[in-house]
């Protein structure tokens, strides 16, 4: 069931949409479930609904709790960074507070980002898993660490084709630390599942390649899927996220990313094999 939760960081409120799985009364033992924190895209100007609840419900159907983070956007003269990463860190710490109530497996937290949200996720996977940079960004102790990240058609490098405007890049972050999330990957970064289409005309596929190349250089586990055709923003690429009256967000081949991702989660032991 959807429930809206308000958290606060540095005097600013932000919202979470939570989709916690109900406890199964038939079981005598506590069953702790993995949890996915979903970071939708929207060019840092809005939060795409197509990459929010539909994704959360898919995770729930796989036995994974889900949370949608409504992170700091470009508005009222505010930058996205560092607030978006700080809000994600605050959310991670909050999970420890509610772990027992909602039966969360804190060793199996997934960060899931689409498009611009993918850059928030990959920045977190670089900066907040490194103790040195984590202290620069977030003064509080980090009580929960992600197990892995999943990114679809992600922005990785703000100078690799999107947004393509120097002024907007500076608005997104006046601090260059957040511009190139591949450059700050360390041995502490977590495994990644990456997917995109090579015909993406909004965020060039170079972004995914840059990230995968850096993960390979650091000898970190990852899985990369590049589909031969498809537009940006496909989300699930099924009828569940298609635009009414059209088919531009339908792509049968690309929709297979979901089953590929679930198989990967089994491979890295976030989900059971059977």
TrEMBL record:
Start and end residues of each BD-FAE-like domain: 32-215
GO MF term list: hydrolase activity
InterPro entries on file: AB_hydrolase_fold, BD-FAE-like_dom, GDXG_lipolytic_enzyme
Record has Hydrolase as a keyword: yes
Bilayer-crossing regions: none
Keywords: Hydrolase
Keyword Hydrolase carried by entry: yes
Top-rank taxon, per record: Bacteria
Name of the featured protein: Alpha/beta hydrolase
Organism: Companilactobacillus mishanensis
């Amino acid at each position: 069931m959807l429930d809206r939760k308000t958290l606060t960081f540095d005097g600013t409120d932000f919202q979470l949409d939570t989709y916690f799985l109900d406890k199964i009364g038939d079981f005598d033992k506590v069953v702790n479930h993995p949890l996915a924190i979903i970071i939708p895209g929207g060019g840092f100007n809005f939060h795409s609904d197509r990459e929010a609840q539909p994704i959360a419900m898919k995770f729930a159907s796989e036995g994974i709790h889900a949370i949608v983070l409504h992170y700091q956007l470009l508005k009222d003269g505010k930058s996205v960074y560092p607030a978006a990463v700080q809000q994600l860190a605050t959310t991670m710490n909050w999970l420890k507070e509610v772990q027992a109530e909602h039966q969360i497996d804190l060793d199996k937290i997934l960060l899931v980002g689409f498009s611009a949200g993918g850059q928030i996720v990959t920045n977190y996977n670089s900066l907040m898993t490194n103790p040195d940079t984590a202290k620069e960004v977030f003064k509080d102790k980090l009580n929960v660490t992600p197990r892995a990240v999943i990114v679809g058609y992600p922005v990785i490098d703000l100078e690799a084709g999107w947004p393509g405007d120097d002024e907007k890049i500076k608005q997104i972050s006046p601090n260059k630390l957040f511009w190139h999330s591949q450059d700050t990957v360390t041995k502490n970064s977590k495994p990644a599942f990456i997917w995109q289409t090579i015909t993406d005309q909004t965020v060039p596929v170079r972004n995914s390649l840059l990230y995968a190349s850096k993960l390979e250089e650091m000898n970190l586990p990852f899985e990369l899927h590049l589909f031969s055709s498809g537009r940006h923003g496909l989300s699930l690429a099924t009828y569940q996220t298609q635009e009414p009256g059209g088919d531009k967000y339908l792509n049968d081949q690309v929709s297979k990313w979901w089953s590929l991702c679930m198989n990967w989660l089994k491979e890295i032991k976030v989900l059971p094999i059977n």
